[in-house]
Every structure is written in C-alpha cells, then in structure tokens.
Write a structure and sequence with these properties.
43 strands, 15% helix, 3 domains, alpha+beta, Rossmann fold, globular, single chain, eight-stranded mixed beta sheet
Length: 732
C-alpha cells in the first residue's frame, strides 16, 4: 500500500511524463483496466487502482545494459500483448514535430534479459517499434524501410529494401505527417504473420529548399519534400507483406491518375484477411470506407460520405487516433464512425458491410472526443458541451442508440474536463480547470466519478478550488452588425478605472485549427510578453470567429470554405468594432498579434482594416496561400486550378499596399512549415508600395522559433518592446 500524499505525487509525475511523451502519449493502462504503469526514477512502476498498491516491475538495475554504469533513460515504454516483455524507447531524436526516431531495447520479464534491437543500424534510427501480437517479434522502420526482428534469435529481416527519402516505406512524407497526423505507417496482422503498410512515392514531388547560411562558411540547402497547393500529392500504395518471405500484395485502390487521392487511415479489419481504410478524394470532400482483401488486393467501398465543403478525419478532432486505431464492435460485425451529415458531429454504429447504421449521439451538439467504449455494459463515453462551446464535459450513451446521453462530469464543476479512461471504462485520470481554477487531477471510478481514495468525491479537485471573484478574466458573447454571435474573453487592467481609456491587444488565430476561447486555466496567458499585460494597463481580448473548430455545429465550422482570409477576418474586424464602442477603450491604441494562422490573420486585419488596427505583430505567417501545403490549403480552399481567385482574395499579400499602422513581421528561415519565401514575397510587396515596417529574421529557426542560444529571450524582448513603443500601455 502507499499513502494518499504519495498517490497525488504520482498523478503529477505521470502528467509531466504524459505531456511530453511521443510516440503515442497517454496513460499506460493494463488490458483489464485495473492497473496503470508509470516511469519514476528510470524504473517502471505498476499501480493497482483497486487496491491502491504500487510495485516496481522493472528496476533501474535491470535496465542497465551490460558494461554500462547507468540505466537507459526511458523516453517511453510499451508492454507486449501478453505482458511478458516491454519495449524501452530511448535516445530519441526529432522528426519534424516530435521525437519519433530513437533506439529501442527489449526487456523480457520472465528471464530478465535486456537486448538492444536493430544492432548494426545507425544510432537513433529506429521508428515506431512494436511487438507482434504473439510477443515473439518486433517490427520497426529504419531509413525508410521496414524490418522484423526475431526476439529469440536476434535475426533481422528486411521486409522492404527500396526505401529512400523519396520512396518511403512504413512512415510518411512531411504533408501527411503534418496535416493527417500520419507517422506510424505499418500494422501487424492479428495472427502475427503479415504486416500492412503505406508506401509513399515522392519522386515527382518537388522539394522546398531551405537555405542554411550559418552552419558552414559556404551556405547549403536542406531539401524537404513539400507539395504546395495545386500540386498533386505524393502517390501512396497500401501493401501487405508476408514476414516469412517478404512477398507483397498491393491493394487495388482506385484513384484519379492526375489529381491523385489520400488514404489517411488504414487498419486490419478485425481479422487476418481484410484491411479497412478511409479513402479521400483530392478535394477531401468525399470519403469512402473500403474493405480490401489482403490476399488478392481486391477492394470494395462499403460506406460513402460527401460534404459540400470538406470531411474532417478523426485525428483532427480526437488526437488519441493519431497513431491509428479503429473502433470495432460486436466481434467485428460493426464499427463506430463519426459524421457531420446531420449538421452536428455525431457517432454512428455502422454494420461491417456499411448497409445499416444507428445514430448513437442524438441532439444539437458536437462530439468532441471519443473517450472509451464499454461494450460489456453497452456504453460509449465521449466529451461534449451542449450548452457552452468554451467548456468540455464527459458524457456516455448506449451503443444501441436507445437512450439520451447522460453527463458524467459533476454538475458543480463548470469548465474544462479531460479524461484518460481505462479499458472497460472502470477508471480514469480526470483533469479539471476553468479560467479561475488552476488545473488539478485525480483518479476516479466510472461511472460514479467517485474519487477512488475514499468516499470524498473529487477531493483532489476541491483542494485546488479557487475564488471566481479574484479573477480579472471575463467571458462574454459579442454580436456583430452581421448578426454573428461569437465567444470571447477579456482581461481588464489590474487597477481598472471605467472613467479612463486603455489600449487593447487582440490575440487571434481565426483558422480551422485553433480555438482560443476556452474556459480553462491559463487561457489568457501571453508568454511572449515580458511582464503582465493587465498590471501594465492593457486590455487583452480574444474572440473565436466562424471557421474555428468550436463545437457549434458543422455550419459554424465550414461556412469558411473557400473564404479563409475573408469571412474569418471580417468576423474579427466587426467584433473589434463593437469593442471599440466601449467607453473605456482608446481607439487610437489598438494592437493585434498572432502566430502561424494567427500571424496570417494579423496581416490581413492590419491590411484590410487599417482604420481599426494601429499596431500588429505577425509571427511565422502565411502571406500567400498558394505557398502552403496542398492537404491543408486545398481542404479548406478548394483546388487553385479551379478557384485560384479565392486564394488571391484570402492572402494578406493581396492587401499589403493598404498598410497604415506599425507592423512587426517575424519569421524563421528554417521554418519547414510556413516557408521563408512567404516573408520575402510579402516584404517585396510592402517595399513596392513604400510601406515602412519592421522585420526580424531568425536564422535557421523553425516554425516554433525556439532553437539556438538566447532565441526565446530575444523574441520576447522584441515583442514586448515593439508593443510598448507603438501601443503604449496604461490609462489615459
């Protein structure tokens, strides 16, 4: 047994690990859902939630390689299907966003043998290693090829040998990874005899050449396979390879030979003979679910959906599926699927042949996340917020569609709840905060939501309860002249005097990947500003316009189709006009800032509505929509071959000649996401019209502008000084 105090410490240690763990993050649950595992002091511990008992299952001594003096530094770990072995992920390196490349070791819990996998391969070159279902082998990707290693003999077999930077086996190109969350590109068959995988052919996809001017006397280029809007995506193939002889069967998936298409999801179809996959057309407005025969490659469509705008794939709104997964029910006879076809994102139970479906979540609300399926008790758990789009709660409903959803989150806790639910939905790690209550976490039992360390329900959360009256954040709804109502928050100055006038700083994102107005702790923080905006006398505001991924239904999110840079920008500007009517707002001191899509919005607001916004700080902005990747930009804007004028109308560069206020534009030259040519194109346009501005280039910094000694302090100082100079703080 262990003490309540120790129990709470474990929660926060676990959260710190979960927050950074890649690949996949989350609680490491046992199959029965009674136990979870965690890393502490380079050891793996097991905590039984029924008994509140802790024991060390793998010691640091056992994880110390022969001849080494220190144990492996555990980055992540994965138990085998039968629990007899554990994979240790260590020495990890970044691949674009996440450190998905590293070294793997296998520890056998029966004979205590520790062995390194992939011997002879370059250090930190293995990706997505995972046990075969029978616990006997491990498969992984290295240098664009797929390998299988026999754990008893150490023999390594290459299942593919043709992999290169432009012919990618078992993982993905930049665009698939960034926009579809596709990283792990292979799947074991349930019988451990075959592996299904993606192959991406980027040989005809153009490289973007990033120039490195600082790491050598002579500059050199770093090529990134990057298909921009209007370019065909890299063609894919879905293969099934027999691990005994490396023989491959390629799935026959119809595609447009010119436009191409996408397969963002693929899994074994709850058996050893079929795959199920989601096939999207180039515009991403038609989704076909297909069953493929793994032995012949023949395929058939079982379920089709169309949308006049676009179709969101599951990982776009539920990140738990970023590394795969398919929710099968009734022994593989049915599966769970989400659709917005009735105007809201709802869950359906669909028969294996796609001919029958049952709506499970009934009502005018969006499902925000699928948390767990408790098939034994006939429930699916999900997160939603029917009454307030800034909040999030846990609900459950029956898998037969015969009952209305019931709220599981306590009625007394208004705000944002997150749950990592165990298999069988017995327990969950529950996290809660709102704008005035710091985040707190606890282990609970479901469905009672009872705090499991006794009878005091939500004791850990109550311990962190805060006083609402002490917060200077206000949530409100703002209605514009266009009759559009939007959620917003406002932070007033610390010593606010309604008889005086204050400057306003708007924080924006505005595009389909960002919701700013959330009822959670820290929602109004501005980490770039040195000091405290409220203490210095600024009003700080953020507003969620139409087109942002707010749970207000399909029409709210998708009315922006082909209108990014127009609808979202007008909504923000019209809302700002309402703010400017407030008697305590100084209309001569109005600033706006944002990063990435928010940087693009900042530029558009400064250029399209110069009469409102006097100061702007745009970071890593897309200045020309035609430069951005095809998956993202075409999803929301259509194909430039058909409607290029929409791209032009929505791009800040089109309106640069209208700049009147003070603009600071910031970009990293090593940005693989929003490329540096956006900056140079925009600069040329501003120069053309003699528009004066300030520009800061960060050499070789990526989209995060975080690399290099002194970078963060320099960026924060630059941001703060510019804001104070051109939008001075304080009351007047």
């Amino acid at each position: 047994m262990f003490s309540f105090k120790k129990f709470l410490v474990i929660i926060f240690l676990l959260l710190s690990v979960v927050a950074i763990a890649q690949p996949p993050k989350g609680v490491h649950w046992s199959k029965d859902g009674n136990t979870f595992y965690q890393i502490e002091d380079n050891q793996i511990e097991q905590i039984n939630l029924n008994e509140r008992a802790l024991k060390v299952v793998v010691t640091k001594e056992q994880l110390t390689p022969k001849g080494a003096s220190t144990p492996l530094a555990i980055r992540n770990f994965f138990f085998s299907n039968y629990g007899s072995k554990v994979l240790i992920y260590t020495n990890s390196k970044k691949v674009w966003r996440y450190d998905t490349r590293g070294d793997y070791w296998c520890f056998d819990l029966n004979n205590h043998k520790l062995q390194q996998l992939g011997k002879g391969m370059p250090a930190s070159s293995l990706m997505f290693a995972k046990f075969s279902p029978d616990d006997k082998k491990v498969a992984y990707v290295s240098n664009y090829n797929i390998y299988v290693e026999d754990l008893s003999t150490g023999k390594i077999n290459a299942l593919t040998k043709d992999g290169t930077r432009e012919l990618i086996n078992g993982t993905f190109d930049w665009a698939y990874e960034e926009e579809f969350f596709c990283r792990d590109g292979f799947r074991w068959s349930p019988d451990s005899k075959k592996i299904a995988f993606w192959q991406m052919n980027a040989k005809n996809t153009k490289d973007y050449l990033m120039i490195d001017n600082t790491d050598s006397i002579y500059p050199f280029t770093k090529p990134v396979v990057y298909p921009i809007a209007g370019q065909a995506p890299s063609p894919y193939k879905i293969g099934v390879v027999d691990i005994s002889n490396a023989k491959k069967i390629w799935m026959n998936i119809p595609t447009d030979p010119v436009l191409q298409s996408y397969v963002p999801r693929m899994e074994w179809a709850s058996n050893n003979t079929e795959l199920i996959l989601q096939h999207l057309n180039r515009k991403q407005n038609t989704s076909d679910l297909m069953l493929c025969n793994a032995n012949t490659g023949n395929s058939k469509t079982i379920y089709e959906e169309k949308d006049s705008a676009w179709i969101d794939i599951l990982p776009l709104w539920d990140e738990e599926y970023s590394y795969g997964g398919w929710d099968w029910l009734n022994g593989g006879k049915d599966f769970l699927w989400a659709s917005e076809k009735d105007g809201w994102r709802h869950l359906y139970k669909v028969s294996r042949d796609g001919k029958n479906e049952i709506l499970l979540t009934v009502g005018n609300y969006d499902v925000m996340k699928i948390n767990a399926i408790d098939e034994k008790n006939n429930y699916v758990y999900f997160e939603a917020s029917p009454q307030n789009a800034t909040q999030k709660y846990l609900y459950r409903t029956t898998l037969d569609g015969k009952r209305n959803a019931e709220r599981i989150s306590p009625a007394s806790q208004e705000g944002t709840h997150d749950y990592d639910v165990s298999p069988q939905a017995k327990f969950a790690l529950h996290s809660f905060s709102n704008y005035y209550t710091p985040g707190a976490s606890e282990w609970i039992a479901l469905p009672s939501h009872a705090f499991i360390n006794g009878n005091d329900v939500n004791a850990a959360v109550k311990e962190y309860a805060a006083d609402k009256s002490k917060s200077n954040i206000e949530f409100f709804t703002i209605k514009t002249a266009d009759n559009i109502s939007m959620d917003a928050w406002m932070v007033k100055p610390s010593h606010f005097d309604s008889t005086k006038k204050y400057p306003v700083v708007f924080y924006v994102y505005t595009e389909p990947w960002g919701q700013n107005v959330k009822d959670e702790y820290g929602t109004s923080d501005n980490d770039l500003y040195q000091g405290n905006l409220a203490d210095d006398g600024y009003i700080y505001i953020s507003i969620d316009n139409r087109g942002t991924p707010v749970p207000k239904g399909r029409e709210w999110r998708k009315c922006i189709y082909r209108k990014i840079g127009l609808i979202n920008i007008r909504d923000q500007a019209m809302a700002a006009k309402e703010i400017l009517k407030l008697p305590f707002v100084d209309t001569s001191r109005i600033a706006v800032w944002g990063w990435s899509g928010g940087g693009s919005a900042t530029l558009n607001l400064m250029f399209q509505y110069p009469e409102i916004y006097k100061t702007g700080i745009a970071i890593a902005a897309v200045g020309n929509q035609l430069t951005y990747d095809n998956i993202y930009q075409e999803r929301y804007m259509g194909l430039p071959q058909e409607n290029k004028e929409d791209y032009i109308k929505g791009s800040p560069i089109t309106y640069a000649k209208n700049l009147q206020g003070h603009l600071l534009y910031i970009h990293g030259t090593g940005d693989d996401n929003v490329h540096f040519n956006n900056a140079e194109m925009l600069l040329n346009e501003l120069i053309k019209y003699n528009k004066q501005f300030q520009f800061m280039e960060y050499p070789n910094r990526t989209h995060s502008i975080s690399e290099g000694e002194g970078t963060t302090l320099h960026l924060h100082t630059l941001y703060t000084n510019f804001l104070k100079q051109y939008c001075p703080p304080g009351a007047k």
